[in-house]
Amino acid sequence: MLDWLKEHVGDLATWATVVLAVLYGGKTIKWSREDAREATAITTWMGYYLQCLQYPRYGCPETLKLDFTKLDKLGSAKEVRESDEYQWFVSYMLLACDLVIQLPKGKDGPNWEQFVRTNVGYHSDYLKSRFFKENYELTLSPELNRTIKEVLRESGEKQTGEGA
């Protein structure tokens, strides 16, 4: 046995090196993908913040005069344009939310879940609307959909005094 080991130690070392290289290579690829996904999510989130600076009335929509219950029956061209701009703004916000909410939990950095919950809360009137539910709700990831429903339920409880 000792003679066999002496004779094949180089082969065993080569195979061990190959196995370790494959394992390390796989981990490196996984880490690279995670880093790329995180960079994309953060870049998209920063783009959303730039949109908030450019369109502050959409970032905090309580100043809007849109009636979210009548989005599919708007009258004037100005109402239609503002509605379209707002919907595109929220779509971008939801894309950013979808990307950051799927980042791995427990990493050092911002609490993305709280950022998402806060920003979803700003748009609760629109997200509760029949128009949003019929046209956009199914396009979201299950995780973001679940978070939106939780935030909307909590905001409804606060408005009616329940849960307080």
Task: Write structural notes for this entry.
The chain is 75% helix and 0% strand. The protein has 164 residues and is mainly α. The protein has one domain (41-159).
| Contiguous uncertain segments of 5+ residues | none
Tally of helical runs: 7
Give the helices and strands as they follow along the chain.
HHHHHHH
Radius of gyration: 25 Å
Derived structural class: mainly alpha
Secondary structure topology:
Blueprint: H1 2-54, H2 56-59, H3 77-101, H4 112-122, H5 124-128, H6 130-135, H7 142-160
Helix pairs in contact: 1-3, 3-4, 4-7
Summarize the structure in short:
The protein has 164 residues and is mainly alpha-helical. The chain is built from 7 helices and no strands.
Which features does this protein show?
mainly alpha, 7 helices
